[in-house]
From TrEMBL:
Keywords: Disulfide bond, Immunoglobulin domain, Membrane, Signal, Transmembrane, Transmembrane helix. PANTHER family: MHC CLASS I NK CELL RECEPTOR, OSTEOCLAST-ASSOCIATED IMMUNOGLOBULIN-LIKE RECEPTOR. The chain crosses the membrane at residues 147-169. This is Ig-like domain-containing protein. Residues 39-108 form the Ig-like domain. GO terms for biological process: cell surface receptor signaling pathway; immune response-regulating signaling pathway. InterPro entries: Ig-like_dom (IPR007110), Ig-like_dom_sf (IPR036179), Ig-like_fold (IPR013783), Ig-like_Receptors_ImmuneReg (IPR050412), Ig_sub (IPR003599), Immunoglobulin_dom (IPR013151). It comes from Gallus gallus (Chicken). The keyword Signal applies. Gene3D superfamilies: Immunoglobulins. The keyword Signal applies. It holds the Pfam family ig.
């Protein structure tokens, strides 16, 4: 009987449709890396250096048709995505709208068909570098323009308010003068 407390376990994907990438979701024993299976290959598209928000495709392949592929990111003990190769010996993982947090070194491994507790060694690595996308040219001018518009609108509002107060005070003084010229006592103001 095997002692499960001392066994190494990791998260793997489950319940995914064949040919779709899935993030990890439940536990099973960590597969044994068997050197008899050659490491998988990896490629990145569009390139290794991309700006924030770019969609990046990572392609893994091996000669083992029907293998289940795992995408690994250095620094994480568990694979970050899983996909069945749908019989073609390749898997395609897409990272949507990458951010600098997605920067890192990626590798692939695979489970040979019908041997879920065996795994290939980690394959070649590709490094993804995500840089913050610089502001588009002229964005600073637009920002300054917005500030100028806000200041002008604020000044216009103050001017309109001041004119309103002026006209109210002027009307009040004319009203008092009219009442006094008619012999009235004027209006008592609080």
């Amino acid at each position: 009987m095997k002692d499960l407390q001392s066994s190494r376990w990791r998260l793997v994907a489950g319940g995914s449709e064949q040919g779709t990438a899935t993030t990890v979701s439940y536990c099973c024993p960590l597969p044994h890396a068997d050197v008899r299976y050659p490491p998988s290959s990896i490629s990145l598209h569009p390139e290794q250096h991309v700006g924030t928000g770019t969609n990046v495709t990572i392609r893994c392949w091996s000669n083992d048709y029907g293998a289940a592929f795992f995408l690994h990111k250095d620094g994480s003990s568990d694979p970050i995505k899983y996909q069945n190769s749908s019989g073609g010996g390749t898997a395609t993982f897409t990272l949507f709208g990458v951010t600098p947090a997605d920067s890192g070194t990626y590798r692939c491994s695979y489970h040979p068909k019908n041997y879920s507790f065996l795994s290939s060694p980690l394959g070649d690595s590709m490094t993804l570098e995500v840089t913050p996308t610089p502001a588009r040219p002229g964005a600073e001018l637009v920002s300054r323009g917005n500030l100028v518009v806000a200041v002008v609108r604020g000044c216009a509002a103050v001017l309109i308010f001041a004119l309103g107060v002026f006209f109210v005070i002027d009307a009040r003084s004319l009203w008092i003068q009219r009442d006094e010229s008619l012999g009235g006592e004027g209006i008592e103001w609080l």
